[in-house]
Design brief:
Number of domains: 1
Oligomer: single chain
CATH topology: UDP-N-acetylmuramoyl-L-alanine:D-glutamate ligase
Mean pLDDT: 93
Number of helices: 10
CATH class: Alpha Beta
Low-confidence stretches: none
Largest sheet: 9 strands, mixed
CATH superfamily: Ribokinase
Radius of gyration: 18 Å
Structural class: alpha/beta
Strand order of the largest sheet: 5-4-1-8-9-10-11-12-13
Strand content: 15-25%
Number of strands: 13
Length: about 325
């Protein structure tokens, strides 16, 4: 039985690299909720996935990738209604990425929902989702049903908006949709850019005040090279980032979420931890993300637990509090 069930997009990231005659694109398995599921599994946890891929070469690749990484694929649907979704990744000279999506429609929009999906959620402790599965009316309906069901069954709810502006009809719809689910979740992870977008704030301190007023059990704000700020039980915790050579930031936030959820679910009561224990989990998650950005691709770059432990043994003191 899985510890975590992730719902949403699974797709192929077309990752650029320089070939002998110019830029070449390498197909790498990705998609934020799928990245989280694989990250948890590689670290030694158990994860299940609810999503849809095309009946094509890329769909076979994605399903096989999940299976190879020991993710439960009983609720991964293969559809002939659309091809597997592609995301072309564009990297700047710092390794920061942007995306061009081929999804009109894409197979990830044909989310399954029925007895099998409910049974999978029944078996887990935590349900994780993002906002890309809410960009159309159909997928928004399925995602809302799934999170409502998970909430009713007493599962922890984890949400990472993972905003991709080009996939929304307009940004106001994106903001309203994301804000509507915030009050229902237990664990929220935001990037600094998403914090500004949702809060309407123009500086970090004002954005932080907005986040505090959400009064959620746990809010994490990732700030790239400046580390992570966490709001937990009325306290504000922070930890620095690990200094590594950045190759590709694709999947960094998902790696962080996967590492954090893996560690958090080792606890019997996730919201009775000391601040120091919570900081330890944040440092572990930051190490998972640091290893990921030092490699190309999303799922292919995700580290195994032994790699993270070796990294922490060598560089643990770099992430200051």
């Amino acid at each position: 039985m899985p510890d975590v069930v992730c719902l949403g997009e699974i797709l192929v990231d077309m990752t650029p690299h320089q070939g002998p005659v110019g830029t070449l694109y390498e197909p790498n398995p990705g998609g934020a909720p799928a990245n989280v599921a694989v990250a948890i599994s590689r670290l030694g946890g158990k994860a299940g996935f609810i999503g849809s891929v095309g009946k094509d070469f890329f769909g076979d690749l994605l399903r096989r990738t999940l299976e190879t990484n020991q993710v439960d694929t009983g609720c991964v649907k293969m559809t002939s209604s659309a091809p597997t979704t592609l995301a072309f990744v564009h990297l700047d000279n710092r390794g920061e990425r942007s995306f061009s999506f081929y999804r009109s429609p894409g197979a990830d929009l044909f989310l399954p929902w029925g007895r099998s999906e409910k049974a999978l959620i029944d078996s887990c402790r935590l349900f994780h989702f993002g906002s890309l599965s809410m960009t159309t009316s159909f997928t928004r309906k399925i995602t809302t049903r799934a999170l409502s069901y998970a909430k009713k069954q007493g599962k922890l709810l984890s949400f990472d908006p993972n905003l991709r502006p080009s996939l929304w009809k307009n940004l106001e719809q994106a903001r309203k949709t994301i804000l509507a689910v915030l009050k229902r979740v237990d664990i929220l992870k935001l990037s600094e850019e998403e914090l500004f977008f949702l809060s309407g704030a123009s500086d970090f301190q004002r954005g932080l005040t907005w986040a505090k007023n959400l009064r959620l059990p746990l809010v994490m704000i990732t700030r790239g090279g400046e580390g992570v700020v966490c709001l937990y039980k009325g306290a504000m915790l922070s930890t620095g980032s690990y200094q590594v050579q950045v190759v590709d930031t694709t999947g960094a936030g998902d790696a962080f979420v996967g590492g954090f959820l893996f560690r958090l679910l080792q606890e019997s009561d996730v919201f009775s931890l000391s601040n120091e224990r919570m900081l330890d989990h944040l440092r572990f998650a930051s190490a998972v993300a640091a290893l990921t950005v030092s490699r190309r691709g999303a799922i292919p770059a995700l580290p195994f637990r032994e790699e993270v432990e070796r990294f922490l043994a060598q560089y643990g003191s770099q992430a200051g509090v």
